[in-house]
Amino acid sequence: MSLQIGDIAPDFQALTTDGRISFHEWLGSSWGVLFSHPKDFTPVCTTELGYMAKIKPEFDKRNVKILGISVDSVDDHARWKKDIEETQGAAVTYPMIGDPEMSVAKLYGMIHPNASGAASTRTAADNATVRTVFVVGPDKKVKLMLTYPMSTGRNFDEVLRVIDSMQLTSRHSVATPVNWKRGEEVIILASVSDEDAKKKFPGGWKAPRPYLRIVPQPEEAR
User: Fold this and answer.
1) Containing structural domain, residue 117
2) Which of 161, 206, 191 is nearest to 179 (CA)?
3) Does the model's pTM come out above 0.85?
4) What is the CATH classification number for the domain harbouring 191?
5) Cβ contacts of residue 172 below 8 Å, gap of 6+?
6) Active site residue 85
7) DSSP character for 152?
8) Cβ neighbours for 116, distance < 8 A, ≥ 6 positions apart
9) Which of 84, 15, 77 shows the shortest CA–CA distance to 40?
């Protein structure tokens, strides 16, 4: 059974570049980004891990922990981290899971359940499905899943944008419109009656249609 948004993210124990972790315990009360790559020492993923290292402070501001994973060993990760820092100009300080048995990749449906063979002999093409981003909430539920093709680098600014939206909408009775960015107008949920909306949004709203009620973004403390 494949994971769906709203499912509890499967817990696991794994060895990482920061030592052994238990995923749910490691996550604690934070949000989390689990992002995978098919093979160490691959060009697109080298740029991705480097960019995540550069923007890690933005995730920290949002109480979001970052966790990388591939089906290579922790020793390979340690060597790859040096390449990433030298070529991308940023040191990877977030943990990276070593998953040579492919147990976490299979648990999260990132690779075929019958995949086999030593990680060292598998190619990036063999592991092509391991190009996924999961965002997990403090409630340990899956909030977002994105899977990218091998040839396309992921947009982690978009992941930040979606986290901003999910954190905002988890605290207020609103949704965010197309291409929304933090600070822009939002939409009152259809499940909120006009009577209740007047209490929640005393400043009123714009309504080009009865079902489309637009208000300024609620103030957020950071």
Assistant:
1) 13-152
2) 161
3) yes
4) 3.30.1020.10
5) 186, 200, 218
6) no
7) S
8) none
9) 77
